[in-house]
Amino acid sequence: MKEIGKYSIGMGDRFGRQGHAQLKAIIEAGKKGIEITPVWNKSNREHNIIGTQPSDVRSEADTVTRNAGFKKSYFVDADHINFDTVDRFIDCSDFFTVDVASYIGKLASRTDIERFISFASGYTGKLEIPGISKTLKCSKEHLNEIAEKYLFASKKAGEIYRKIEKQKGKDNFVTEVSMDEVVQPQTPLELFFILAMLAGEGVPLQTIAPKFSGRFNKGVDYSGDPLRFATEFEEDLLVIGHAVKEFGLPENLKISVHSGSDKFSIYGHIGSIIKKHDKGIHLKTAGTTWLEEVIGLAEAGGEALEFVKTIYIKSLEKIEELCVPYADVIDININMLPQSGIVSHWNSVKFAASFRHIPGNRDYNPNMRQLLHVAYKLAAENKEHWFRLLDEHEELVAKCVFENIYDRHICRLFGIS
Question: How far apart are the first and last CA of the chain?
Answer without folding.
Answer: 35
